[in-house]
Design brief:
The protein contains no helices and 24 strands. With 291 residues, it is mainly beta.
Length: 291
């Protein structure tokens, strides 16, 4: 390149140094032994040796690059933006915003100490919030449309919870108590066939309290240990068809003679009937009309 300045260690001569184009193109070159190592031009481009490619490596002292007030660090293969000790492939201090929203971003990640004030936020094209996960406030996913899956990649409702493992337990929700945030109650889907059941679990007592079968039958968690209502809290009415009474599965019999029995009360047009399921005998209640 023709030059009007060829300076080498303060001497306007030699084969190494700074060259400025004499054709008013604004090109500046740095040369070593007559070979160009860096070209600066008026297009705001800096071209290293071998055109756009650096043949070996671009080394920045102390692994850090500062542009204005922003710091970029590369350490052990990790990149840090505003973080001088990145522990991950990309570590961004404070805020990460990604997207093409005018005046905003599609995805925003805000970091805070110990999760306090932290959140991940996704917005619609109009700028309104679609989903948000926070460290110390309410979180929601696709709050207005769409489906959310936990443990499943194919949610079928607003919230679908997948199975916990590959044994008997399906989707499960645990509810914690206020005193220590320990799991107190659980609801899960139980069974490894299509005929599953819904269970209510008492973690404090380590027992199952209630089970709803796939055919609609409702079972107590234990035999003969749970009541429906109490002496002070009773159900107003019980609507049922036949009434089956049995204590045969108990360890002891009744409190009168200690025997065990199985009876069924059925309704008739004029009488109530009671059937002894052990010997097959049938009886009817003698009813007196009150006028």
């Amino acid at each position: 390149m023709a030059s009007i300045l060829n300076a080498d260690n303060g001497v306007v001569s030699g084969t190494s140094g700074l060259k400025y184009a004499s054709d008013n193109s604004g090109v500046i070159e740095l040369q070593t032994s007559g070979a160009t190592t860096l070209t600066l031009n008026t297009s705001k481009n800096a071209v290293f040796a071998n055109a756009a490619n650096v043949a070996t490596a671009l080394n920045i002292g102390a692994n850090a690059l500062t542009v204005g007030t922003s710091m970029y660090v590369v350490a052990n293969g990790n990149v840090g933006i505003g973080n001088n000790a990145p522990a991950h492939y990309l570590s961004v201090y404070n805020t990460l915003a990604v997207g093409t929203q005018p005046g905003g971003s599609d995805l925003t990640v805000i970091g805070g100490g110990n999760g306090i004030g932290s959140y991940i936020e996704y917005r619609y094209s109009n700028g309104s919030i679609n989903s948000k996960i926070t460290g110390n406030n309410d979180s929601y996913l696709n709050a207005f449309i769409g489906k959310v899956g936990i443990g499943t990649t194919a949610p079928t409702s607003k919230l679908t919870i997948g199975r916990d493992d590959t044994s008997q337990e399906g989707g499960q929700v645990d509810l914690c108590r206020a005193i220590d945030n320990a799991s107190a109650w659980g609801i899960d889907v139980y069974g490894n066939t299509s005929a599953t059941s819904l269970r209510i679990l008492d973690y404090a007592g380590s027992v199952e309290r209630l089970r709803v079968q796939s055919n609609g039958h409702v079972w107590p968690g234990s035999n003969g240990l749970q009541d429906l209502g109490s002496p002070t809290l009773s159900w107003r009415n019980i609507y049922t068809n036949d009434l089956h009474l049995s204590n045969e599965s108990h360890e002891i019999g009744n409190s009168v003679d200690g025997s065990k029995g199985s009876w069924t009360i059925q309704e008739g047009a004029d009488y109530l009937y009671i059937l002894n399921n052990k010997n097959g005998k049938k009886y009817k209640f003698i009813l007196e009309e009150i006028k």
